[in-house]
Amino acid sequence: MKKSFLKLGLAALILGASSLAAGEYDLRTNMLQLNNELSEIRGGLIAGDNQLVATSLSAFAKDASDLLSQREEIIKKFPQDMKNKKHKANLANEAARTIDYNVKQIEASLDNKNPASKKQRREQAQIAYLNIVNACFQCHNVARDK
Predict the structure, then answer these.
(1) Has residue 4 been placed in a domain?
(2) Would residue 76 count as lying in a domain?
């Protein structure tokens, strides 16, 4: 009886500790996923593989929007002891808008919607990709500081 009570108490303690860090863990997991998708986009841009870029870009755009566009959800995912969560969530929303705009720029370059040469469209897509990376870094620099 004492062993089962002890096991139950230990399980409750572990579950409680893991749920406290679940938001932070979830945020970290999502960031790693976005990073992987960005790497695929970069690989496609370097290799000139428009299909890989389009596929990875679509997944990245959806995941970034899901993660960053809801201010209240962002606040919940920040660590408990973080200061200025609302301000940092606003910056994450701004990063989401920047990402969305630049995703559209890359899509337009891939779809030949820009009246430019192939080289110019490729350069526009690369600049838009770098703008996305910059938005990610700006958000990360603020979010890391507790």
Answers:
(1) no
(2) yes
CATH of the domain at 39: 1.20.1440
pLDDT tens readout for residues 100-112: 999 999 999 998 8
- The rounded distance, in Å, linking the Cα atoms of 116 and 86 is 41
Tell me the residue type at 3.
K
Query: Measured in whole angstroms, how far is the alpha carbon of residue 59 from the centre of its chain?
Result: 11
User: Is residue 15 in some structural domain?
Assistant: no
Q: How far, rounded to the nearest angstrom, does the alpha carbon of residue 5 sit from its chain's CA centroid?
A: 42
Residue 7 has a CB neighbour count (10 Å cut-off) of 10
* Domain of residue 91, residue span: 21-144
Q: Which of 66, 71, 36 is nearest to 52 (CA)?
A: 36
Q: What is the pTM of this model?
A: 0.78
